[in-house]
Every structure is written in structure tokens, then in C-alpha cells.
Amino acid sequence: MSRSYSIPEATAQHAPTSTADGSSFARFLSAASSWGGSAAPLLAVLRAVEPGSLLPLPGAGETDERLRRLARVGETDLTAARVLEPHLDAVAILAEAGEPLPERGTTWGVFAAEAPDAVLQAIPSGDGWLLRGRKAWCSLAGELTSALVTATTLTGERRMFAVDLTAHEVTAEHARWVARGLTEVVSGPVRFDGAVATPVGGDGWYLDRPGFRWGAIGVAACWWGGCLPIADALAARVRRRPDDELGAARAGELHRALDAGRLALRDAAARIDSGTVGDAALLSHSVRGTVVDAVVLALAAARDVLGPAALAFDESLARRCADLELYVAQYHRGRDDASLARHLPEGGLAW
Hints:
Oligomer: single chain
């Protein structure tokens, strides 16, 4: 019989607070620096620390510090960012739902992508729920203990559920993962054959809540940090070749874009904590698009200025560029800008 993720009774008014103190984060960052590109030792660190000790929760007064730490992980290693960010997003989602934080020893993912050839249904069963079907794009599913998963109810609504990934009714199917970036963060399908699940929030809650947008901004902080070593490499080249005007121009252009991304992230953090966000979707799309503009410039500069020698013989830079390119592919440049436009206020921008 499968185990459900049991959530004790709690209310949104008594949501758990973060106990982030820096030591757990420092431990994870050290592992990311020592084991860059390898997921297993990073997951071992996550199992060994309290989930709420790694980063402050978003909207609790330290969102700037949360984003800064995410950026630091992205700067250190992008595989580490892909391991850590969804785990922490799950912690934040449970907190926003007014539920207790996960227990030590668990590692979490958030599986909310939809695909036409993978449908997951949530079926009432007695006083609980069962999940049946397949879910696509489940990163590290075969290595995690738990996940928050979106499924479609019999009324056609999307709803989030907590599920034990080690239950025998849950199978992480083989994925032919041929990506050159994020090679250890395999994102394949998972089959659920009547797995017991615990609801988190009501119908539509996962997408409607403000924290959905805060999580998306957290991903952008990882992207931003991932650009910094590329910017550093460009700046070092300029110092070595002071007469290279083209290289200097690209380094300057990238600095401006990254500074704009930094200011956008810090402004978003301040607005989230002060409760002055306004349209959360507009803020999230704007911040993510600004950061992605910097990512595009960073990857182009690595190719055009640092050139094939760096991409062919500098293992760290080559892997970073491949990781960053795949990581940022989850941003849909045209569609996301179109979605942003639908949230534009009447009267446009104001000072």
C-alpha cells in the first residue's frame, strides 16, 4: 500500500516561518562548489538539513536575501540551482498553503508542466485521493522522495497534490535524455497507478496564488547568477586585450543588462515584502524577461567574443553555457511577452 504525504492540520494564518540561519546554505554551497555538475551529493546535503533552514521564505521580509542566495547558487553551479530551486519552491508552496514544512530527510520536486501525451487524473477515493496517469517533465523524479504534482480532477479543474515518489504505485519511466546541458537533471515522465495523494490548496489554487509568481522570479535569480562567470570571463579578456574594442563593447553591454536584471530582482523583492506588487503576473513577466535579455547577451558574447577555443577547451565555461542555454529554455520568449502585454495597465508606465 502506498504512503501519502501526511499533512497535519494547519491554517494559512499560522503558516510556518523559515528558520534559515546560513549554515545549511553554506553547506549546500560548498557541495555545489566541490561537486559541480553532479546531482547525487547535492541531494544528499538536502536530505541532511532541515528544509526550512536553507533560505528565507518569500514574502516574509527577507525575499532579497532569498533571491541573492539563489543567484549565488546559480553562479556556483547551475546543476546545483536546478536541484535546489524546486526543492525550496515546494517548501514555499506548502508554507503558503498553511501547511507544515517538509521533514528532514525528504527531497522535493514540483511537477506542474502539462503535455498533450501525458495526462494525470486525481480521483476521489473514500476520504482521500488517488492519482492515475502520466506526468511529463518530472525532473529528478527517480532520485527524489516526494513531490508536489498538479493533476486534473473529474470536474476538469487543476489541483495540486503531495505524493510519495517512493511508493510502488509511482514509477519514474526511462527518459532518453540527450541534452548536453544539465546532463544529471533528467526530466522524464512519471506514471502513477493509483498512488495515494494529499491535496494542497483547492481547485486552481496553485496557479492563482501570488507565490506562483514569486517562484518564477526565484528561477530568474538562478539564471542571473548563472551569467556572472561568463561576464567575469569577458572582463578578464578585456583586461588582457585592452585594444579589443569589440570585446570591450560586448563586456560593457552585458554589464548593463546584468545590472538591469539585478535592479529588477531587488525591486521585485522589496515590493513582494512590502505588499506593493500590484499585478503579480506583470511583475514576474517583466523581471524574468529582463533577466533573460541578459542571458541571451551572455551566451552570444561567450560564442562571439570568447570563441570556440573557450567553448571547446574550457570545461567549466563550456558546461556552464550548455547548462544555462537549456535552463533558460523554459522561458518562452514570444509567448511570455505576449502574456505580459495582456497585463499592461491602462495609461502605460508612470514615473
